[in-house]
UniProtKB/TrEMBL annotation:
<dbReference type="InterPro" id="IPR050312">
    <property type="entry name" value="IolE/XylAMocC-like"/>
</dbReference>
<dbReference type="InterPro" id="IPR013022">
    <property type="entry name" value="Xyl_isomerase-like_TIM-brl"/>
</dbReference>
<protein>
    <submittedName>
        <fullName>Sugar phosphate isomerase/epimerase</fullName>
    </submittedName>
</protein>
<keyword id="KW-0413">Isomerase</keyword>
<dbReference type="Pfam" id="PF01261">
    <property type="entry name" value="AP_endonuc_2"/>
</dbReference>
<feature type="domain" description="Xylose isomerase-like TIM barrel">
    <location>
        <begin position="19"/>
        <end position="244"/>
    </location>
</feature>
<dbReference type="GO" id="GO:0016853">
    <property type="term" value="F:isomerase activity"/>
</dbReference>
<dbReference type="InterPro" id="IPR036237">
    <property type="entry name" value="Xyl_isomerase-like_sf"/>
</dbReference>
Length: 258
């Protein structure tokens, strides 16, 4: 198991926080970090300096599918370009939000599945493993069970965001999803949350029962990204150690570079 940290779209935050972790997850595209020749050099230097690997998060604002096939083609083309770029930097994984223009449009769910398959195939061609993330608490996010079913149908790996699942359906939602789809999970986003709307808190500061993650993922050997919105490295390390403990991997002497 490798433990990393999300750094938003900031290479500076990567430099400040990622040195103790196995990888940094960088948000790319649209209003986030935009790949360009003048910025790529800075990113490559930062990755070398902190001696960490790269994962990427594909654009947050762009849905995966719509009712307009020309837009769907453009979405796949755009994400293919980003995946190709990520591949040139040796990115391990790319996270994609599981979103549709209307996630309750049952007739369009097959379109989403087709889009997901095409994007995952582009990732394979680029040498970057695509993982689809649950965001069912958001207006355009597919519900947990629907996302799980489509991921299984398309043989797409899942980025299971524990906090998002809690915000969508509480601790029961975490337990149900992992009870059914734990075998699909290859990437985790870990943070804490409270039902009143607070999220991306340090683990232990909220209401999530992380013990519910331990049993279904007791043999987990994927990647874990600490997604706590702080630049306080000791807090990030503490959440990483708590996540590792709950996953029954043992604390070890250091959080990460494994």
């Amino acid at each position: 198991m490798e433990v990393g940290v999300t750094v938003g779209d900031s290479v500076e935050r990567l430099e400040a926080t990622a040195g103790d972790f196995a990888f940094a997850e960088l948000s790319i595209g649209e209003s986030a970090y935009v790949p360009a020749e003048e910025t790529n050099s800075h990113l490559r230097t930062a990755l070398d300096t902190v001696d960490t690997e790269l994962c990427v998060h594909l654009p947050f604002e762009q849905v995966v599918s719509t009712r307009v096939h020309q837009l769907n083609d453009a979405i796949v083309a755009h994400l293919t370009e980003l995946l190709d770029w990520a591949g040139t930097l040796g990115a391990q994984k790319a996270v994609l939000h599981g979103t549709m223009r209307n996630p309750h449009d049952v007739e369009q769910r097959q379109v989403f599945a087709d889009q997901l398959s095409a994007i995952a195939s582009a990732g394979d061609d680029a040498g970057v493993a695509l993982v689809v993330e649950n965001v069912g608490h958001q207006a355009r996010g597919l519900p947990l069970s629907v996302l799980g079913d489509i991921a299984r149908e398309t043989e797409t790996a899942v980025c299971f965001d524990v906090g998002h699942a809690y915000m969508e359906d509480g601790n029961d939602g975490i337990e149900r999803f992992l009870g059914e789809y734990a075998d699909l999970v290859s990437h985790l986003h870990v943070h804490d949350a409270r039902g009143r709307g607070d999220t991306h808190l340090p683990i232990g500061a909220g209401e999530i029962e992380y013990e519910l993650v331990a049993e279904p993922l007791s043999d987990f050997d994927g990647t874990v990204a600490v997604e706590v919105f702080t630049d306080d490295v000791p807090l990030l390390r503490d959440s990483a150690e708590r996540a590792r403990r709950h996953l029954q991997q043992g604390l070890g002497s250091s959080v990460a570079k494994e």
